[in-house]
Amino acid sequence: MSIRKILVTGANGQLGWEIAQAAPSFPLFEFVFVDRTKLDLSKPESFQAIIKEIAPDAIINTAAYTAVDKAEIEKELAYTINALAVQELAKISKQLAIPFITYSTDYVFNGNATSPYLTDMPVDPVNYYGTTKAAGEEMAMAANEETIIIRTSWVFSTHGNNFVKTMLRLMKERASLSIVGDQQGRPTFAKDLANATIQIVRSINEGKKIKGIYHYANTGATTWFGFAEKIKALAGLKCELTSINTIDFPTPAKRPAYSILDTKKIESELSISIPNWETALAACITQIGIV
User: Fold this and answer.
1) Cα dist. 187→219, 259, 260, 276 in Å?
2) Can you give the pTM of this predicted structure?
3) How many domains are there within the chain?
4) Using CA atoms in the order 127, 37, 32, 137, what is the torsion angle rounded to 10 degrees?
5) In this structure, what are the phi and psi dihedrals at residue 105, rounded to the nearest 5 degrees?
6) Vertex 148, ends 24 and 139: CA angle to 5°?
7) C-beta of residue 197 within 8 angstroms of C-beta of residue 55
8) Which domain holds residue 47?
9) Could you read off the pLDDT tens digit of each residue along the chain, which spans 291 residues?
10) Considering the domain boundaries, does residue 54 fall inside one?
């Protein structure tokens, strides 16, 4: 397969933006980045004409509805973007016989596990956002069995809204913060995931057959409290942090208590090396200081 032109949706999101930063290092590919003004995921009926005009050799869908709590209210919009739109992109990719990569979440699992989630474990989301992402996975695979789904977790970047940037801001503004300490997961630097994604496209271009579900998150696990403590230490901030339980911080959407993803499959099958989350966080905070 010869891949030259790659369509990337969600240009303004954390992952889409990081792919754009990495793109100049891969002159073999011509990346076409679109945001919602050009390709609006809430309008799947418009995709066919737009994609025909762009004529890509591969599609990477980084766009998603990610407002976990808001999804409990904006159900129709969340479902359209995370399920119906993904199904339509998968269908078009099949018609064009081109690779399709899309992303899902640790929130497709119920959080009751005691060891890292493997890619083939049954999904059982505990909130509506997770429900829409699980539906998107199933519908994409049904529309196009060659679909590549990458589940990830706790994404952060120098760009956009995320836990790292929120913590840096709040720790500068406040003397103390209470952070949930009984939810476990693996943080993911969007920059590392962007590079892994392009590596996957390169492997396909070189003839490797890749399809199905993979997990990608930076190595090592922590809690939101542990994450915040590391942010504080790396940034040299003085804010006092207190660990609280989920029950003490009610949110509209329930969160899984344990959502650590097992990434052995992507590491072994696709020869992808994953940095540790603390190393990645240090790199991110350094870049935020420069930006």
Assistant:
1) 8, 11, 9, 9
2) 0.97
3) 1
4) 20
5) -140, 155
6) 130
7) no
8) 5-162+187-219+259-275
9) 799 999 999 999 999 999 999 999 999 999 999 999 999 999 999 999 999 999 999 999 999 999 999 999 999 999 999 999 999 999 999 999 999 999 999 999 999 999 999 999 999 999 999 999 999 999 999 999 999 999 999 999 999 999 999 999 999 999 999 999 999 999 999 999 999 999 999 999 999 999 999 999 999 999 999 999 999 999 999 999 999 999 999 999 999 999 999 999 999 999 999 999 999 999 999 999 876
10) yes
Q: CB of 216 within 8 A of CB of 196?
A: yes
Report residue 16 as tokens: 């889409």
Could you give phi then psi for residue 97, rounded to 5 degrees? 55, 45
pLDDT at 291: 60
State residue 6's pLDDT score.
98
CB 115, CB 146: distance < 8 Å? no
Which of the 8 DSSP states describes residue 116?
P
Both structure tokens of 142: 């049904």
d(CA 176, CA 200): 42
Residue 126 to residue 9: CA distance in whole angstroms: 27
Alpha-carbon radius of gyration of the chain: 19
At 289 the pLDDT is 85
Q: Residue 258 catalytic?
A: no
Residues in the chain: 291
Catalytic-role residue among 117, 128, 129, 214: 129
- Is 180 a member of any domain? no
Instruction: Give me the CATH number covering residue 45.
Output: 3.40.50.720
Q: What is the DSSP string of 144-187?
A: -TT-EEEEE-SEE-SSSS-HHHHHHHHHHH-SEEEEE-S-EE--
Asked whether residue 253 is assigned to any structural domain, the reply reads no
Q: Say how far apart CA 82 and CA 79 lie, in whole Å.
A: 5
- Residue 268 counted as domain residue: yes
